[in-house]
Design a protein that fits this description.
- By secondary structure, the chain is α/β, with parallel strands linked by helices.
- It has two domains: 268 residues, Aminopeptidase, CATH 3.40.630; 101 residues, Alpha-Beta Plaits, CATH 3.30.70.360.
């Protein structure tokens, strides 16, 4: 079966190039990816997938399915970008690999059993629709989730922190002795002291202050935004409760009113799954991607983290080029090069081979689910 998918992928290489080129050149803001999502929808419909558009109430989200039996293997697509900067994160790579994989698998799924699901996930750069989809139960009947992410290194295993984005609005009367800026400084300093009583992996990051930072220019309102990072969301929410106590004390001490809210969707810790990762590592090497780095944990949140608490997930970073820095104009060039196309072909074959392994040997899925349950049971 793996040889059949490899042969089919080689015959549709021009189509795969076209997919990557279209997505790479179609720059659309988060939740406004109308052209990209419709392009993928029509492509999947042409290949006999049943497609639900406007999925979960999001205009540019979709769910495509082929087959009705278990196990259900899901592939994720992302397609938003920065219109003024280009594909600096290479999301075109992610979607092209997923689509190429399912197109190859669609030719054998009736023979090997199981079913394929493709989920179009808009808005990744603005919090990510995966978080909402996870809450809505989209992944509850999925057995494994597969996707790849381009980067400037290749690593299979790696976790990411839970991230809770916070917004605090501070205000006071014009006649007040203290300004919201002084209240903000007091709150941030207090948070830093508070975090020392938690684990070493807890921190605040991405602090942004909207208001006058000049003490000689008095303003009676100010908004501060930041993210709490921790080993899990339970701890992050506990820290948020403590921050509310700090704000309340600040109000009584400095006479500064406050309102505290979530500024965006929260990301949970990403659980990497050793069972799936070992399988993918083997298949990547079989397909020519040999140099894999050791476990690499990341200091930023991932929307897939929420999904990884529901279903075993694969999300490796794949190096487009060691000397092209992720998130730069050089990376844009790398994500449309001929070597990138070859890498897409190899990744698609490795991902489809991994799906075949999971369908043909369901004990692997059970092993992955047991591992996930053990991770969730940790204190």
């Amino acid at each position: 079966m793996k040889q059949k998918t490899a042969s089919y992928l080689s015959t549709i290489k021009p189509d795969i190039i076209n997919i990557n080129t279209f997505l790479h050149n179609t720059l659309e803001e988060s939740y406004h990816e109308y052209k990209s999502s419709q392009y993928l929808i029509e492509l999947l419909k042409t290949n006999s997938f049943h497609v639900i558009e406007n999925f979960c109430g999001m205009e540019t989200a979709f769910k495509a399915e082929l087959g009705t039996s278990y196990p259900k293997i899901a592939f994720l697509c992302e397609y938003d970008s920065f219109p003024l900067k280009g594909q600096i994160l290479g999301t075109s790579f992610t979607s092209t690999v997923s689509i190429a994989s399912v197109l190859a698998l669609s030719k054998i799924i009736d023979t090997i059993g199981g079913s394929l699901t493709v989920i179009g996930c808009p808005g990744e750069l603005k919090g990510g629709s995966k978080v909402s989809m996870a809450k809505m139960g989209v992944f509850d009947d999925i057995d494994a989730v597969l996707m790849v992410q381009p980067h400037n290194h290749t690593s299979i295993n790696g976790s990411s922190p839970a991230v809770l984005p916070i917004k605090i609005f501070l205000s006071c009367e014009d006649s007040n002795h203290y300004t919201p800026l002084e209240g903000c400084i007091y709150i941030i300093d207090s948070i830093n002291i508070l975090l020392k009583s938690y684990c070493k992996d807890c921190s605040i990051d991405n602090i942004k202050i909207d208001g006058s930072l000049n003490p000689s220019i008095l303003k009676n309102t100010l908004e501060v935004k930041f993210s709490i990072k921790s080993v899990n969301l339970d701890i992050a929410y506990n820290i948020k409760d403590k921050i509310e106590e700090i704000c309340s004390f600040s109000k009584s001490l400095l006479n500064i009113d406050y309102k505290i809210h979530l500024n965006n969707v929260p990301y949970d810790t990403l659980f990497y799954n050793n069972t799936l990762n070992r399988l993918l590592a083997h298949n990547l090497k079989e397909c020519g991607i040999i140099h894999l780095e050791d476990i690499k944990d990341y200091n930023f949140g991932l929307s897939l983290g929420n999904v990884s608490h529901i279903v075993p997930c694969i999300r490796p970073f794949i190096s487009l080029s060691n000397d092209k820095i992720f998130g730069t104009s050089d990376f844009i060039e790398a994500s449309s090069s001929s070597s990138c196309i070859d890498l897409i072909m190899n990744c698609a074959q490795a991902l489809s081979n991994t799906a075949i392994d999971l369908i043909e040997k369901e004990s692997l899925i059970q092993e992955a689910k047991i591992e996930l349950n053990n991770l969730k049971a940790r204190p």
